[in-house]
Each structure stands twice: as C-alpha cells, then as structure tokens.
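WARN no homologs supplied; continuing
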Amino acid sequence: MCITAQVRVCADGGANRVFDEMPLLFPSDDALDVRQRYKPDIIKGDMDSVRTEVLDFYTNLGTKVADESHDQDSTDLHKCVAYIRDLTPNLDKSNLCILVAGALGGRFDHEAGNMNVLYRFSTMRLILLSDDCLIYLLPSTHLHEIYIQSSVEGPHCGLIPIGMPSVSTTTTGLQWDLSKYIALKLFW
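OK structure emitted
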C-alpha cells in the first residue's frame, strides 16, 4: 500500500495517532520504518495535544512544526486546511481534494468543529474519514451524482440537509429511494 499526497499535514494531536497507529496497519514491517515512510511534512496546531517524544521524533526527521498556540479562534483542522489552501495559491480549489483521517469518532465538540470546517471551506473538496464512515459536503451550487462501490462502502448512507432544506433529492438503489423529495429530514 502506498499513500501518495502532495503534502501531509498533521494537526498536533493527529501526529500522535500517525505515530501510534500507522505501524499497526503494517504489522510485518518494522515500526520505525513505517513511521519514517509516513512522516508528516508539517505538524500544525496549538500544540496542546502532541506528545513531546512524538514531536521530537518527527522534527528529527525534518518535519516542520507550526506552533499556532496564539490563535485560539480557529480549530487545528481549520489551521491545517487553511495551510493547504494557501500552499496552492494558483490551483483551482475545486480541483483540490483533502482527505482528513481521524476527523470523527472522538469528542462531539471536535467532530462538530470538523464538520463546520466543511462549510468554512465549501469551495474545496474535503472528506472527513474515520474507521467506519466518511463525510463530505455536497454544495447546493452543484448537481451531484454519487456512485457507491458496495465492496468498499456501506451498508449505510445518510443524506442530511443541514441549515436549509434540500431543493430536490432523487436516489436509486437505496432501501428507501427518494424521488425529487424536498424536506429537511434525517435518513438512516
């Protein structure tokens, strides 16, 4: 398995998770080799969560550290996404895709903050990933067609209009399909 990305950014606590959990994905490989292979390019955030030994390990490998502890007006994820956005000033942001691993499954206030980042950067494609789901924003300015790869995704799919009703939603292949349904409703 090879994970390729133009840039790998970790929120401060995310660096702990990469350090601890990446070797678990490759049990037959040496943990040190895995950590070196999947090192972040930058660790960014208010540095309230990253362990000292993790920070030291990655900085010794050349990972940059951006201590943003002076900024408590935005979340660490917001800081990371803004960094990526600003790193690519000439790129059409709608062609940029940011996969955010570990964005779900923790404290609810962190999850809600991470979902808020989807709205704050709605012109970019952000996908929040966890062990068992993914979340992304479908901007109302576009027509969306979603094709499910059932060998990888499922068995659940939720369409949740947040903040305003969906204008028109039609689905096929779900247990309860919708035909130009207009409402503010939660499906699961």
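The radius of gyration is 18 Å.
OK
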